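Hi L.,

As promised, SPW_0924 family protein:
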Amino acid sequence: MRAFVAAVIGLAAAFALVLTLSAVGSPPGETSPEPLLTTVPGSQR
């Protein structure tokens, strides 16, 4: 029973965090026009 209560409290806290972050919204600004490098340059085979 204690595990169930702890799980409910954890889920409620996570849900409240998601709602808070979605209410605040994303910070203002622009994305970079440069693509992100996902590999080390020059390591192509």
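The chain has a mean pLDDT of 85.

Thanks again for sending the construct details.

K.
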